[in-house]
Structure formats: C-alpha cells, structure tokens
Amino acid sequence: MVGYRYLGNSGFKISEITYGNWITHGSQIDDDAASATVRAALDAGITTFDTADVYANLQAEAVLGRALSGQRREGLEIFTKVYFPTGPKGPNDTGLSRKHIMDSINGSLRRLGTDYVDLYQAHRFDAQTPLEETFQAFADIVRQGKALYIGVSEWTAEQLRDGHALAKELGVQLISNQPQYSMLWRVIEGEVVPASQELGISQIVWSPMAQGVLSGKYLPGRAAPTGSRATDEQGGAKFIEAFLRDEVLQAVQRLRPIAEAAGLTMPQLAIAWVLQNPNVASALVGASRPEQLAETVQASGVRLDADTLAAIDRALDGAVFDDP
Ligand code: NDP
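A: This is the predicted complex of the input protein with NDP.
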C-alpha cells in the first residue's frame, strides 16, 4: 500500500503518490475510463487527488467529482487550483485577485461536489495583484471552511518566503509548493528546496515521469506508441514535445539496466527517485489507464542506494535540465 507523508510543517498527511488528472480526464480519456482510473488509484491506496479549474476547461474537476462521489469524504485529500482563465476572457477571469479567487473557489466546489477542498493552490504567482490581497482572500476562504490549507505552484524561493510570511501573519498555513521535478527536470534543487526546508513547505511534484518519457516507451528515432500522450493532438502532444529529443530519449534508455538491477520497472525507478528527496511530500502522477497506476504505486516505500543514484546521474549526464 502507499505510504503517507506530512505536508509541510502541518499535521496533515497525504499519500506519497497523488493522482492528478491534467490532460487525461475530460480531454484525453472518457468518463468511464476516468472513473476506472480513479477506482484503480483508490484500490492501490492513493487517497490524494489533484486537479485544477483550468484542466480540460472546467471538465476535469467535474469528472473527478463524479468519480469520487460515494467515497467517504474524510478519507480523501482533494486539491485544486486557481489562477488561469478557464474559458471566459473577462477582465477578472484570471490571476489572484480577491474577485477571481472568490468566484473560482465556489465554482470548483460545485464541480467537485464537495463542501471543501483540503488544499487550495495558487497555480502561478501573480505579479499584478498585491500579495496581501491574495493572502487575505485565501485566509477568508480558510475561515469560511472552503479550504483547509493553502499551497502554491511554481513559485520561486523569494515568492515562497514572502507568501509564507504573509500567510503566517494572517493565521493560515502555506504548506506546499507544486513544481515540476523529475530525473530530467531538477530546477528546484538549487533554491526552492533549500528555502522550503527552512520555511516548512513541502513539494508536491508534477510530471515526475516527465509525462511518460521516463517510462522508456518513447524510443529514439521511432514513432511514439499509439494512444500515448505524444500522439494526443487534442492537447497533450505539445506539452511533451520538449522531452522528445533523440539525445534525451537515448539517455533515458540507459536507465533500463539500472532499473532492472534495482528490481524495478522504469516508471517505478522514476517515482522512487523523486520520493528520495525528503522535501518531496508526494509524487503527483498521471495515468491514462488503470494498469499504469497499479505499476507506479509500487515505487512507494522503495529506497534507492547511493550506487543506483550515482548510476542514474551518469546515465543522464547532459540530458538534465536544472537551470532556474
Ligand atoms: P507524469 O509524469 O506522471 O506522466 C503521466 C503520463 O505518463 C500518463 O498520463 C501516461 O501517459 C504516462 N504513464 C504513466 N504511467 C505509465 C506507465 N506505467 N507506463 C507507461 N506510461 C505511463 O505526470 P503528468 O505530466 O501527467 O502530471 C501529473 C499531474 O501533475 C497532473 O495531472 C496535474 O495534476 C499536475 N500538473 C501540475 C502542473 C502545474 O502547473 N501545477 C503542470 C502539469 C501537471 P500516456 O499513457 O498518455 O502516455
């Protein structure tokens, strides 16, 4: 079963593998397949689910809400986000103003079919809105019981410090950041992780499998497998493109014997690697079918030894992006 970790400096525990439904629910896969994937996540012991109003233009929250209906609410940790416009292009349909936050939380709760979310996240930093306004709105939402904790996504170390100080002043807990992090994308290691450790903020890391690339299924010089994100012309293909370069794909193939020697599959090696970082509370994985999750969750509880970690770094030399 999946292990649990505390989220930041709080008493709130989340499953160390979180299931996220970007690109899959509401766009790449249909309602029945989405429900089957959520059921597979629950069966595997995942109780933490991440979505956003902007995913599939509001549909992803609704699909997740339907898939989770009937589950005991207290046994779930449900996360969503605010920032990006979801379709309408009115002047207040974006960012972290009080107006957009207040309108957005109500819509998210309605679509998710719940009275509260466990974690409400600022999907990006909004340089146009005073940070005090944003955190005052978050504090009000927490006091209204619509969200229990506050998180952010892709904030810099300095933004995290400012946000954390304000949250503390207002009596709310800013306990997480949601950045991209994988063996191939290590930007947060330089500044964000050290600052977060100091502040008591955890990382919930997205695309830990580099959108499926670290599963090893994309082979250099060969067409992408049918049904994979790289063939999803509705949206997915353009996001994964940056990883689909021959030198990256060749480096990823060098991980295959390392995974085998560790007794893991390549997807499991990728997830175990991010979970090795003590500042990571959870690997936020995607899955387009149930079998993928059944495989991935077995990375929970795995410890990679120093030789394996060094072999991974040698294999990926020159293919890692770590520039802040
Ligand atoms: P991953 O790196 O885990 O990629 C998931 C994709 O990899 C799956 O949809 C599937 O795609 C493929 N895959 C998964 N397991 C396997 C397997 N065992 N074997 C082969 N292929 C596999 O994460 P995502 O990029 O999906 O991101 C995860 C979540 O992170 C999102 O749902 C969202 O919640 C969050 N996120 C947050 C962002 C932010 O700005 N805060 C930005 C992006 C994501 P397929 O089968 O189609 O090939």
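The mean pLDDT is 95. Residues 98-112 form the longest helix (15 residues).
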